[in-house]
Amino acid sequence: MFIIKKILTPFLIPPGIFVALALCLAAWQCRKNRKQAAAWAGFALLMWAAAAAPIGNMVLAGLEYSYLPPEEVKADAVVVLSAGIEEGGPGSLGVPTLSAASLERASEAARIHRRYKLPLVITGGTVFSKGPEAPVIKEYLVSLGVPPKDIFTETRARDTWENAVFSKKLCDEKGYKKPLIVTSAYHMRRAMWSFKEAGFEDAVPYPTAYKSSKRLRFQYADLLPCSFGPISLALHEYLGLIFYAINYRGVPGPEARPAID
Q1: Tens digits of per-residue pLDDT, 120-130?
Q2: CA dihedral in degrees (228, 100, 78, 203; nearest 10)?
Q3: What strands lie across the sheet with 77-81, from one edge to the other?
């Protein structure tokens, strides 16, 4: 009974329920219209594959394992990219709630600071929130014991490219030449491309929060349609890389670009 419950549950909630409905439509159309039945069956199998762990893992791993955390840290600062805040929900320790990705990145930055005592540059402006994201992450880091004097915030950036451009200007003012770049592993390729283009020739990638694995062995539950999350993240990043390569390659650095207020 336990195994049956584990197998059936994914087909009763999204995205598995959409797979089940498409398969039911394929079966219903089987005698009436075989072409439509085949189309519905193909659509169901496509959704199933996209929502199954092996496909999502494979696509996401292609991004995440482009960089690995350095075995030895040689840097003069840490640049942390924000990834959103959750407004309206109760925060912990009197601090507004961070999104899952922002929380992962900020927590990694706190661990790095605890070990290496490097200054932190938090970059993140106002995207969909009422105010900039960087100060919220700073509050969280201070609540973890990071001294406020060791944290600098950049509050104008609205995307990864602007994270790089405005961080370059701040780091130049502070004299930081070789920063660690802390962001989610799936996001690191786009981040490093942006930071290199913005003039950070010696930037060091420090990916965190890996969501895929290089192991090829999967359990039966991994073959069930559980989530579009991994493949959605991967497609978002690949589209971002294409967009950035078209729009930002060769764009002047922060000293030559107008400020965005």
Answers
A1: 999 999 988 88
A2: 10
A3: 151-154, 120-123, 77-81, 179-184, 204-208
